[in-house]
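Q: Can I borrow your eye for a moment on a structure tokenisation matter? Would you mind producing a protein record, from residues through to fold? Write it directly below this note and I will take it from there.
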Amino acid sequence: MRVITLLTDFGTRDYFVPSMKGVILKICKDVHIVDITHEVPPQNIRRGALILWACYKHFPRDTIHLVVVDPGVGTERRPIIVRSRNYYFVGPDNGVLIPAAEDDGIVRVYEIEIDKISRSRKISRTFHGRDIFAPAAALLAAGIDVEKIARPIENYERSIVIERPRRTGNMFQAQVIYIDRFGNVYTNIREEDLEGRPRNIIVKLGPDDKVLNLPFVDAYGMVPPGHDLALINSEGFLELSTNFGDFSKKYNVKELDKLIVMVEY
């Protein structure tokens, strides 16, 4: 049984997600649909791309990742399929698919040929998730060869989701790339950017350049509740956190905020 994942900014209060699932199941009943999330902030391509990049690799080989974060729906932006070494990615040509696909290794990129996937119904200008992307993903799951529904292309939109930090000695000009539901703050400093195990992480943040001296630990519970800390998280990024607290709210940190980070060894 093939797996199709869904990642969108649609939320769950409206009819959008179940409509897509219905279309998929009408075309291919023998499929397992997994919801990654539908809570991407509206039109936030960068966040959608980062979430996809973080989790795509944990699914079985040949999973079809269907992503609809599509502020350009109905315009000249193309609907595409990306074949990587181990997966298919289906969605808009706005960069949202590319970080994950490049991480796995892009084999070929295709533009979906709309007349080959939906001859029986009118294509909405506002809901390509239902009318183009869901049928394309379902046809792939049913075993249709990608080149029967899409044509190869050479040019496609790329998206810089994670900028590299600028480094001078042990000081980094860094950026907040993600804040999870616990209020943990992911910086764009990777574990491999560090020279061994730090002792402390000194962070300057916020409009008033507040300076924090955070102990570097291996797990949240290594400091008392309410205390701040720094660690390397599950995705390999330097994370700023508060044990049993919300670091982002505590210090009014937002995604894309700039940070100065000093590493003490």
